[in-house]
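Project outcomes to date are best conveyed with an example. Our students and postdoctoral researchers have been running inverse folding experiments weekly, and each run begins with a structure described purely in tokens. The record below, which covers 364 residues, was selected by the lab manager from last quarter's runs and is presented without edits.
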């Protein structure tokens, strides 16, 4: 996993070049202030088409280098968490190079995370590819040197090494035989205990607890104040990722979207684990979900999506934008014209995954 921390105040839209080439496991945080909050229309389209998880962070200004200090503080926190393999700072400010020197092991033990500064996201992608190739060359060179040392080893040393290896093997064989005898005795003495340890109810309870703990961690990771048990109930009742997304938005509004982004990559895996642990409950939830879907098949999908996010008047305007457009690109332009950039993009991102479905309903 890689993350790109963008000093937008310094690099502007040019620094985001390459954002459309990132994948689902990548993340981007764009640091901006009231002095630098303008994004070109062309770059905004690339941001929307990117598969990466993108977040905007408005910094608190009022002092010199306020953005730099806040970006650096967050970077240190992320390095300590050891979540990301690479952290790239996107900026023209060479002062950030000291972060690379610091976390590169000059002052403290080097962490697992690589920290580096580039001028654009595209440059960071190219650096990563070159860096991996260089590391591979170093590894191959080290292996070749070791092979050469072994070949140059005198015959006497080699014979001594073989003799030592044989002695070690004999001692290992003896120890292995003794260990096998001890294990046989332990099995014969502990047979009743083993039967007790394989209690199906206890094993099922343990699996259930492990699942709940893992799900709670996902909710906590989203950094949203939500009861993980209630989120889990929504997860169980939802049959699809889209349905889970809608339920979260209805329950938690905008906060639900942040929770959804954290759980989304693990949704399918967690569903599979839950079905293995609770096959009967999973089946009941599926049947209930089907009944609910039948009952709500005639309900207003657009109202469900935007409920709690905007007023009914704005929902009607969004509906008109859908009716008057034929594709997502035209719909996006229509939304920005109707609601201005900030509000138009917010509504567009909610409706975008369901645009084709809503358009078909309007035509029918």
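After processing, the design step wrote out the following sequence:
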């Amino acid at each position: 996993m890689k993350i790109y921390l963008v000093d937008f105040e310094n690099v502007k839209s040019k620094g985001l070049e390459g954002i459309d080439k990132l994948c689902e496991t990548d993340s981007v945080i764009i640091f901006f202030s009231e002095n630098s909050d303008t994004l070109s229309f062309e770059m905004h389209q690339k941001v929307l088409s990117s598969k990466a998880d993108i977040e905007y962070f408005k910094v608190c200004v009022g002092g010199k280098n306020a953005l730099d200090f806040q970006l650096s503080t967050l970077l240190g926190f992320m390095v300590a968490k050891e979540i990301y393999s690479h952290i790239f700072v996107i900026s023209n400010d060479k002062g950030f190079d000291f972060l690379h020197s610091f976390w590169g092991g000059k002052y403290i033990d080097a962490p697992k995370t690589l920290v580096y500064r580039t001028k654009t996201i595209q440059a960071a992608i190219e650096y990563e590819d070159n860096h991996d190739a260089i590391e591979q060359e170093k590894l191959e060179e080290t292996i070749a040197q070791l092979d050469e040392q072994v070949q140059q080893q005198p015959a006497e040393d080699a014979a001594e090494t073989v003799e030592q290896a044989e002695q070690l093997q004999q001692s290992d064989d003896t120890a292995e035989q003794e260990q096998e005898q001890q294990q046989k005795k332990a099995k014969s003495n502990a047979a009743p205990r083993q039967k007790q340890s394989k209690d199906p109810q206890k094993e099922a309870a343990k699996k259930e607890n492990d699942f709940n703990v893992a799900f709670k961690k996902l909710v906590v990771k989203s950094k949203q104040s939500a009861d993980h048990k209630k989120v889990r109930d929504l997860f169980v009742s939802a049959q699809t990722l889209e349905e889970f997304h809608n339920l979260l938005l209805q329950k938690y509004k905008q906060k639900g979207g942040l929770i959804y982004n954290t759980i989304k990559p693990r949704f399918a895996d967690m569903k599979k684990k839950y079905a293995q642990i609770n096959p009967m409950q999973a089946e009941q939830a599926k049947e209930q979900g089907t009944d609910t879907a039948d009952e709500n098949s005639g309900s207003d999908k657009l109202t469900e999506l935007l409920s709690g996010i905007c007023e009914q008047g704005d929902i009607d305007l969004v509906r008109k934008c859908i009716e008057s457009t034929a594709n997502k690109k035209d719909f996006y332009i229509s939304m920005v014209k109707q609601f201005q950039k900030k509000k138009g993009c917010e509504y567009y991102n909610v409706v975008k995954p369901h645009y084709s479905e809503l358009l078909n309903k309007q035509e029918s």
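The chain has 17 helices and five strands. The radius of gyration is 28 Å. The training component of this project remains on track.
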